[in-house]
Specification:
about 60% helix, mainly alpha, single chain, about 110 residues, 6 helices
């Protein structure tokens, strides 16, 4: 699996399940945030929570999410220019950002532009 594969699968997941705000996965609606979708993709559905990497994962899925996040951060408009987590979280949590917006950005990032 490549970072591009992670983004492609994450786009499918967020399109199918919807966008969560404020957490990786909504326990009731099962909507996911951008990081939750990427984490599900990288772990082949084992976890949607980035913070659970230490428990569930080898370093490979964590690296894939980080690499995918770096690509995605370049594809979304943001006030932040520092690190991918801040960029993606800010973009994801905007009320005006839809699941479709995130999925489109993920697909764009998967194709590097």
């Amino acid at each position: 699996m490549t970072p591009e594969d992670v983004l492609t699968k994450a786009a499918e997941t967020i399109t199918r399940r919807g966008k969560a705000t404020g957490h990786y996965e909504d326990p009731v609606t099962r909507e996911v945030c951008a990081y939750g979708a990427m984490t599900l993709a990288a772990t082949e559905g084992k976890t949607s929570c980035y913070s659970e990497f230490d428990f569930f994962l080898t370093p490979r899925p964590a690296l894939l999410v980080q690499q995918a996040a770096e690509l995605l951060a370049k594809a979304v408009p943001s006030e932040f220019v520092d690190e991918p987590f801040a960029v993606i979280t800010w973009y994801n949590d905007q009320e005006s950002t839809t699941a479709e917006d995130i999925a489109l950005a993920m697909k764009k990032a998967a194709h590097h532009g």
